[in-house]
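Trying the structure run again after the queue cleared.
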Amino acid sequence: WYARKPDKAVNASRSKLTVDGNAVYAAYFEGHMGYRNDNTSGVAKGDEAETIYMVTSGRHFNSKCCFDYGNAETDVRDDGKGTMEALYWGNSAGGLFPKHQGTGNGPWVMADLENGLWGGNETVNPSNNPVDADFVTAMLKGEPGRYTLKGGAAGGPSGKLHTLFQGERPPHYNPMRKQGAIIMGIGGDNSNGGVGTFLEGALTAGVADDATDDAVHADIVAAGYGL
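Done. Tokens:
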């Protein structure tokens, strides 16, 4: 599940669904698949602030490393703690990583900060509950010294966007050393054992306020995933 060579591309017709009654196709990652851009501009670096969101399938995930979307190393290597900041969706809760995920058996919205998947801070986070939904909005907001995780149901009746964690970064992740590559479906070092479905997302400089987060989520719900 660890690759130094290019990953396979997804099958563009593998995952057909509807959004507001219209047929669309998601990026369906089945393992050993992934995308990255190591030459970007305008992406947060070092300890700069950023906001990331994605919509993913709540039913397609696994415990392997790592179904991520976000900011990663530009050299396709593990450059140590704090050298990436990406959204993770899945139920990895051990193995290579200490147990600092959410409650229950997952899946969870977590942050991949390199050499650790974090659902909060140093221990299991009792506020990070699994999101049980067909489609999930996941958000990660990183700023100097702290970060925030949010999640909520993205399809069907309007669901609330919940704050799953908001607080200090784990030890040894402050300050961050982000490098500014963009990854999808893989870890920062190209670990490609994760599976998942990417429906939409964005990565922006700066930290969005709560009203903006809620507005983005409301627009996602209004789009009618699966309807």
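The helical segments are 210-223. Worth checking whether this holds up in the mutant runs.
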